[in-house]
Amino acid sequence: MSMPISGPNQATNATTASAPKNKGGLEGIVAATTAISKVEGNTGRLIYRGYNIHDLARTTIFEEVVHLLWFGHLPSQQELTNLQQRFAAERTIPENVMVALRALPTSTEPMDALRTAVSAWGAVAIKGQPTVDQAIALTARFPLFLAAFNRLRHGQEPLESKPELGHAANYLYLLTGEVPSEEHVQGLNAYLVLLADHGMNASTFTARIVASTESDIASSIVAAIGALKGPLHGGAPSKVQDMLHEIGTPENADSWIRDAITTGKKLMGFGHRVYKTTDPRAEELREMARVADPQGFVFTRRVEELAISILEELKPGRRLYTNVEYYSAALMASVGLSGDLFTPTFAVSRVGGWTAHVLEQAGNNRLIRPEAEYTGSTDLAFKPLNER
């Protein structure tokens, strides 16, 4: 069964002569048009197809949000039920993927295992141009791939999914073998909603570039996973946890933060390329962390308050505030995830947005082919090999 895509699909190049001068990292360059999400950096707002992220995080589940991203509207009860049934039907791991996962050393990073599994699955399951059916199949399988590898590396056999469980609950079950508490399911669901899309970030742009070549959806998503893995994009949540462990106590926080800033050490979980105020996703995650781990929250919040104050003191005018990664670490730890599963779980969420952008790109495609400002020599005199 094929599901149609609704909503505008417009993607264009920005290579006109009037385009702003490159500041590095394509800052200020408009590379596409999209109807999927909007990031308002100065006011700290994130919009998914017209809906404020605060409303979605508090009232929807992940399956509703990916329906919104793919089809352009929130689902009716029947549409949601249909999508959940589609997800449950796709919860299988082909034998070639299991062979690949079993062959990986137990020391393999889960993000690398996820990339490998998606590539192996795509090699046998994906043909032709991107479709929403393929997006559903990919998104449904991300938790399976991760949970299967996580159990294998700990000497356990992968589990069969429970069709009666939703996306977030089934992921936690596949990891632990226990049906999760409602509190943990709600926390993970909210996290998945909050991270599902975020404008033209590095991994989404990567996915759209690959899609613009008319490659397949699996190749686009494998490339996006590679981009998300980097610590300057999605690879930082576990490093927030490491930083908090290194700080150790509230009494040590002030001196540790000051020393880190003055010596050029990066404060993990602070600052964002777009937001010039608190990341709205961090606001939601902060409240969830407060409920999930009241005792640990006191320390985490104290470090946050000190860091923002000291950053303004030592780097005035830079407007460096808490980003989504800071409280992501606390929330994911509270639902029982190990640190090296934080970024792959980010991918479990973001694959919804990646696939929506791939579909949008394919729907009105033009090859993304920007120019580069050349800074090398142009008139060197050539010498044959025997004269060099």
TrEMBL record:
Pathway assigned to this chain's UniProt record: Carbohydrate metabolism; tricarboxylic acid cycle
Region of interest: Disordered: 1-23
Reactions catalysed according to its record: oxaloacetate + acetyl-CoA + H2O = citrate + CoA + H(+)
Residue stretches of biased makeup (Polar residues): 7-19
Presence of the UniProt keyword Disulfide bond in the record: no
Pfam family, one: Citrate_synt
UniProt KW keywords: Transferase
Listed PANTHER family: CITRATE SYNTHASE, CITRATE SYNTHASE, PEROXISOMAL
UniProt similarity note: Belongs to the citrate synthase family.
The protein's name: Citrate synthase
Organism the protein comes from: Ktedonobacter robiniae
